[in-house]
Records
---
Amino acid sequence: MLQNEDTITAIATPPGEGAISIIRISGNDSFAVADKIFSGKVRIIDAATHTIHYGKIRKGEEIIDDVLVSVFRNPNSFTGEDSIEISTHGNQLICGKIIELLVDSGVRLAEPGEFTKRAFLNGKLDLAQAEAVADIISARGEASLRGARNQLDGILSSKVNFLREMLINTSSLVELELDFAEEDLEFMSLEQIDTNIVKVLDEIEKLLSTYSFGRVLKDGINVALVGKPNVGKSSLLNYMLKEARAIVSEIPGTTRDTIREDFTFDGIYFKIYDTAGIRLTEDSIEKEGVERSRNVIKNADVVVFLNDINEGLDEELHSTLLNLTDDHRIITVLNKIDIFSGEHLKKPVKYISALTGEGIEELLISIKEKAISSQSYSEKTAIVSNIRHYQSLKRAKESLLNARETVKTRLSGEFLSVDLRDAESALGEIIGIVTTDDILNNIFSKFCIGK
Ligand SMILES: Nc1nc2c(ncn2[C@@H]2O[C@H](COP(=O)(O)OP(=O)(O)OP(=O)(O)O)[C@@H](O)[C@H]2O)c(=O)[nH]1
Ligand SMILES: [Mg+2]
């Protein structure tokens, strides 16, 4: 068991008032340090693992708080080290005082994500699972929580591991063959090698294709509501939120800034941007608003292109949109059907009324389907939701395509072995078998303190 030198501490609960707060301590000196400031019936150093002890935290004569101390002996703790959790009354002053006492006793303040980083370094979690811990904490919709849970349970990790092992088996035979080059032995035919590579490539391709869904699970869908002034963008936003969030008026140019509001629908997190109506304008404030609208459109996963049905489709604005985003991201919508009595268009457009709400639920469903490419996955499917994993998979794919090329052109086995090893190490990065300080710092610095 890897044990770090420092013993670290942090408040693990969010700041503010609450029923309780929890202070975490992890490292070799956890129990000894706890005994310096805590007095109860049992000394923590003698306490059995997974037991809870009532007592008082004291600073000299002063009682700081009545607390409960939970004891976790290595390796059976989150970090894999000796750890304790002190549950205090939920008051920041109390927590601050206890942290001060701990620091005076030689404990260091933890860096963001340091507890989880230690869990990874001590082999309690692989890297993809450690990342899932952060995703679980930040999950904002049912679906995103399920996705993070799936990753923490190791569904992605075991898939990646399985593919790595297939590659290792193949590359070791290729290497064995190189060792016996003079003897002209063949351990595996080139055809067999190619079949193995193709199998792994297919699986990688499948994983890559889950990314659009995985990203939506994790980050939600960015939706831009765009259209000419007065078509009803703000009315639509308000209807979706079920509150009068944005000002609505019959005067064109009402919304001058971008408004973002979030909500969950059908387990998915929606980030909706109401934008300033796009038109050519001399007004400098409105100009700035239109400029912001353009940026929102560029970054949107789905663009809801709203039109007033009584004025028909705005073809000019449609071509402007095509310069800013892809056609497949756009959903064309005709609004105000409540005051329209003409014929519906033949084109594939959605009809809604932001006033009565007609068609809006269907619109939300289309937005979701567009963002996740209409795919649905079972709970057991490995899903890629993290850009780091996505990039590693793409690198593995590149190397395997090179490997196939080598097989085809019957180049030396040395080239083949290099490509296979590259693919294998790209996969290893996902679960942290291959890693660097930079990768680790980058991942864990984004965690909150105390996790
Ligand atoms: N009858 C009817 N009126 C609507 C509907 N949607 C919006 N309106 C009206 O259309 C006018 C403009 O609505 P807004 O929501 O402010 O339009 P907007 O697109 O946000 O306009 P700007 O912010 O100026 O770009 C208001 O008077 C709304 O009440 C609808 O579905 N039916
Ligand atoms: Mg508006």
---
Amino acid sequence: MKDNSITRRKFLKTSGVVISSVVLAGSGLTLLDDHEPVDPFPIYSIGDQNMSKRILVTYASRTGSTAGVAEVIGQTLSNPETRVDIFPITEVKDLSPYNAVVAGSAIQGGEWLPEALDFVREHRSEFSRIPFAAFTVCMTLAMKKGDYGDQVKTWLNPVRTLVKPAREGFFAGSLDIAKIPSFADRMKFRLSVMAGVWSEGDHRDWHAIRTWAEDLNSVL
Ligand SMILES: Cc1cc2nc3c(=O)[nH]c(=O)nc-3n(C[C@H](O)[C@H](O)[C@H](O)COP(=O)(O)O)c2cc1C
């Protein structure tokens, strides 16, 4: 009869391999699963209630880079006569106090974030009373090869069908993979970085963002 029993030595060797594989796989996943919390988003005003003009700069962001762009636009627009509110788009309910609105969104899957488009849809009739400017933040504008500027501009079409912005800004964003909440999306972005599509880090061009914001003064 065939002896199916295994020797103690064989058993220890096999279980050693199994345990090492589990530990290695586990530590690999821990390395990949490096999700970090996103810093709180800015929500504040520059100036006071007595100022003659009030501008809203509002934004939809997931990992914070669009929020940072909104902050710099707001700071650039502030002056002794103008109060600027820098608010996340989901916090804004009433546009009646404002003389102008600047709204921006991060791009995901070639689209503005849903809450940003909802905001424009909800308030579209008010943009016949006050000027509206829109800005878009994405990684395609930070790609290492190719010029996709024209394609990126088409991503604003759903907004344009609701309201025609007085000005449109398109800016490169930043890629901080650890802050992306979905594990699958983190993997996708890691692979795209490895493939050389773009590099991780902050690609925001603060000079271009400030220049765009300074130019808004002529239309808002
Ligand atoms: C799930 C996901 C999908 C994205 N899809 C696109 C895309 O289709 N095109 C693009 O140019 N950038 C895309 N990006 C990059 C973001 O637009 C870019 O990192 C932006 O700076 C993020 O803004 P936020 O930090 O305000 O969320 C995507 C990012 C994530 C996390």
